[in-house]
Amino acid sequence: MSKKKETRLRHIVAVSNNKGGAGKTTTVLNLASAIMRRGYRVLVIDTDPQCNLSLSVGWDTQREGTRTEPGEPTIFNAICLGQNIPVYRNDIGLYYTPSSPRMEDADVHLNSADVTDPVRVLKSLFAEPIDDHTGEGLTEWESSFDFIFIDTQPAMSRVTVNVICAADGIIIPVELEPLAVDGYVKTIGKILKIKKVSNPTLQIHGVLLTKKDARLNSAKSLEEMLREEGDVFQTTISRTNDVPSSQDRDFDPQPGVCHDIFSYRHGRSRAAEDFILLATEYLKRWGK
Ligand SMILES: Nc1ncnc2c1ncn2[C@@H]1O[C@H](COP(=O)(O)OP(=O)(O)O)[C@@H](O)[C@H]1O
Ligand SMILES: [Mg+2]
What we know:
Layout: E1 11-15, H1 24-36, E2 42-46, H2 52-56, H3 75-81, E3 86-89, E4 95-97, H4 106-110, H5 121-125, E5 131-132, E6 147-151, H6 158-166, E7 169-175, H7 178-198, E8 203-210, H8 217-229, H9 242-247, H10 270-284
Parallel strand pairs: 1-6, 1-7, 2-4, 2-6, 3-5, 7-8
Antiparallel strand pairs: 3-4
Helix pairs in contact: 1-10
């Protein structure tokens, strides 16, 4: 199923936009799933205290335990307690690192005097071994994953800056809606500043236009404007109720069950087609 080890070249990809509702979590979940279904080994990491991605990949937040009775580790343990990044695997074979509501406290920790390089804590963790909860004996990053997609908070917090500093590339999902496009201009400005100061080799992989309603003239003109400005993926993601429905865990609240668009209605959705096209377009970047 997975590609041969010698062809493996790990890419760490941040998915970021300051604005909530832009489609970051949906993009990480479904692009990662589409690429995994093409035979690659893919890890998704959630850094948002809202834990939407964690829940969508099948993480049960109860597994983390409580403050007094610790359970299984999350990204919080890695970023704030100096442990290795924990990796789990769900029913469709997607590897994941869950977030925690405690990530609300991560910025305070990163700003504290005992953190010597507060923007590179996450980056340094990729040099450490993996805390393997998959039972597969994963030990080191280089041979374990082809792609690592990191979902970010809807804010340019210290945690988000850490993600962008740890990344080789970045995807910026933008909802095709006038106010969201305004927010994008601010986001790209901040990303370019972080690139210049802290991560000069960061590649802008592209802007992904999400929740597109092709019937709206406003969507068409916004799309034209954004395409004139910069690097926008040819593929766009259609607006369809199948996306929120697929993420609704009331359908199957069992732990370990993935709520990607391909697991919903056997993948018979316009959005599933869009994410397959996006994966094809994205993989071409590496000649795959
Ligand atoms: N293509 C789409 N069509 C319809 N709803 C969508 C689409 N993409 C995302 N959504 C919905 O919009 C909301 C926000 O999306 P999400 O991916 O969580 O954004 P973010 O992570 O940027 O806050 C979610 O309820 C999600 O189900
Ligand atoms: Mg999100």
